[in-house]
Amino acid sequence: MPPGKMHADEVDTDASLVRRLLAPQFPAWADLPIAPVPSAGTDNALYRLGDNMVVRLPRIHWAVHLVDKEYHWLPKLAPRLPLAIPVPLAKGMPADDFPWPWAVYRWLDGEDRTPEGDATRHQIAVDMAAFILALQRIDPPSQPSPGPLDSDRGVPLAVRDPATRIAIAALRGMLDTDALTSAWEAALDAPVWHGPPVWLHGDLRPGNFLYQQGRLSAVIDFGCLGVGDPACDLQVAWNLLAGDARDAFRAALQVDDATWARGRGWALSVGVIALPYYQTTNPDLAAIARRAIEAVLTDS
What we know:
By secondary structure, the protein is α+β, with helices and mostly antiparallel strands.
């Protein structure tokens, strides 16, 4: 793995590249200050542009199609949601020294560290549930699901079975793989989703929320946006919430036992796949994965 990178074939980016991309395509912005934004995100490199914008450059080939997906869908979803989400302002084209499209978004203020305190966490859980319910109420695309948005989030858990079992095996010696397998098989045994597909953020986890004055203010990073089984977005119950806050989240969503069990499976599957891949290259994301795994094992 190249030093400082998360993926073996990740492209190089820096502030000077951003300026070179801006100069011919968006010259009015080319002289604004540019600074890298620390992030545990895996698909895009972020650079703050002036005070009010952020540039997102795909790091890796599989993230390239996400530029068009977000550029198309986020402006349509934003007016229907109770929290702020990223709003794309412009889409950049490939250049000689950067092979892919990229985008400029409006900067969203807020802190990504989850506030402490039981009452605060309870309110955050309720606000998260309200966001998920509002997203689910928006009519999804009419194409077959969950393929039209190029997202594997929302597929039946059985589709993730081979990759999840490979990841569990990779954790042998690090975690109790027998317990992981039992928890995963319990999730697979839950009744599958037979309802209509719904909109999903797909990657609700710490780092993809912003807070202001102790309240949830924005949801970011819609690269996994898709439609499918609503259980996918319940993974936040285990990768972030705990105790009374998790209970409040479930009560606000009013989900049935089967959906909750599949949500636990999503949290486990995403966690075990992420942990061995990112444990040395993205410690923050690896810590989130470990937290989710431990929460599932203690809650199952």
